Amino acid sequence: MDKRNIIRKVRLTPEEDALFKRKAARYKTVSAMVRDAVAQFDDTATRGKVKALREMTALYHKYEQDLGWLGGNFNQTMKRANELAITQELTPQFFEQVLYPQVTQLQQLINDIKREQHHIAKQLTRL
Predict the structure, then answer these.
(1) Which end of the chain, N or C, is more open, meaning fewer C-beta atoms within 10 Å of its C-beta?
(2) Which 8-state DSSP code applies to residue 5?
(3) Which domain of life is it from (predicted)?
(4) Which pLDDT value is given to residue 47?
(5) What is the distance between the alpha carbons of residues 120 and 113, in angstroms, rounded to a whole number?
(6) What whole-number distance in Å separates Cα of residue 66 and Cα of residue 125?
(7) Predicted confidence (pLDDT) per residue in 32-41, tens digit
């Protein structure tokens, strides 16, 4: 085993020192925790994770907007269908040509969004 004889000094505030001690609780010494943290740290990977998180956040915001649009359209379609059903104007032809295509389109878009969100979550868990 290599002998550890090089000393690195770090200036800390009392709060930072307390944080170091809390984080080092599972280790024999604070030095052991610092060595482990440095060994695991990879600045390139960290930047990649931050970039991926930003991209994911942007996609989630886009999906939130898309879902809002979908919900509004779906509510309008269902409201109109209810109005027509009450006045007995909702014909099978209307259902097949107007209502069903809208519902199908909305369902497909929602499924696409869910699938993409699942894909993003899988990628992030690999980081």
Answers:
(1) N
(2) -
(3) Bacteria
(4) 77
(5) 11
(6) 24
(7) 999 988 888 7
Instruction: Specify whether the CB–CB gap between 6 and 31 falls below 8 A.
Output: no
Amino acid occupying residue 49 = K
81 burial type by CB count under 10 A (0-12 exposed, 13-18 middle, 19+ buried): middle
Using the structure block, give the residue that is written with the tokens 């099978």: 92
Instruction: Determine the distance from the C-alpha atom of residue 53 to the mean position of all C-alpha atoms in its chain, rounded to a whole number.
Output: 7
Report the C-alpha gap between 96 and 14 in whole angstroms: 71
Burial degree of 58 (CB within 10 A; 0-12, 13-18, 19+): exposed
pLDDT band, very low/low/confident/very high, at 126 (cuts 50, 70, 90)? low
67-99 pLDDT, tens digit each: 788 778 878 877 888 888 788 888 778 778 888
Q: Which two tokens stand for residue 67?
A: 């879902």
CA distance 93 to 80: 15
